[in-house]
Amino acid sequence: NGHENRALWQSIPGGHSPVHSIIIDPADPKHLYLSSSGGGSYVTLDGGERWVMFSHHAKAQTEEARVFISQTAAAVPPGWDPASITDFHHMEMDPKDPNRLWAQAHWGVFRSDDGGRSWEDVTHMKEPQGLPSFHGFPITVTKREPDAAFVVPLEMGTDNLRTVLGQFTVYRTRDAGATWEPLTNGLPGPDDFQSCYRESMDTDGLESEGVYVGTSNGHVYASIDGGDRWERLPGTLPPILSLTCAVN
After folding, report:
1. Which of 67, 70, 212, 248 is 20 to 30 A from residue 156's alpha carbon, by CA?
2. Phi, psi of 148 (to 5 degrees)
3. How far is Cα 109 from Cα 243, in angstroms, rounded to an integer?
């Protein structure tokens, strides 16, 4: 980006994959998770002295994802299950339960209830209340409602950044991913193909919990009732790479 202090930031030696989704356990600052693009997701219990990969425990289960994976299996290292996840696009820790992790991956949406040791594919594409696509970038978790989370599915393409069928849709689960509900009231479409990036959605934790999502066109949409109704906030920004709620 064009930030005036960009030149002051440099990567340290070692590693070849961009790192994102750095998560710190609020109860233990030495317990961290991180994801890297194409390089896997890792956990440390000692403040970074030792890292252990855990994302390979997540395996794509939807038929659609496995068909797509079969077309790229030749590039998978020997001994790896092609369905294993090496790239969580975005990962969130549930603020109500540090053992519960949510992840939007290249091949689906996943949930872990044991700190990443095992994962469940909760995409459910074939089911009436499933997601329309296994692909996407942002995912966010409610700070109040026990089993609720939000994702924005995207169509696979050369740019990986297309809303499904031209309708910008946020999907909500209230049962830990067993079912998903499309939310479009106040969101743009049809024939709308803006998208959103991995860090561009958040919740505010207020009693009537608000949800906010920023788009590649620089628009911010807000819902003050948990996603039932949306309103575009005034103004147009550059493409929104990251959005975080700060409650005063």
Report:
1. 212
2. -100, 145
3. 20
Tell me which CATH code domain 8-156+164-182 carries: 2.130.10.10
- Tens digits of per-residue pLDDT, 107-139? 789 999 999 889 999 988 777 889 988 878 899
Q: What pLDDT does residue 106 have?
A: 77
Let me know the angle formed at the C-alpha of 30 by 100 and 48, rounded to the nearest 5 degrees: 105
Q: What is the pLDDT at residue 234? A: 97
pTM: 0.83
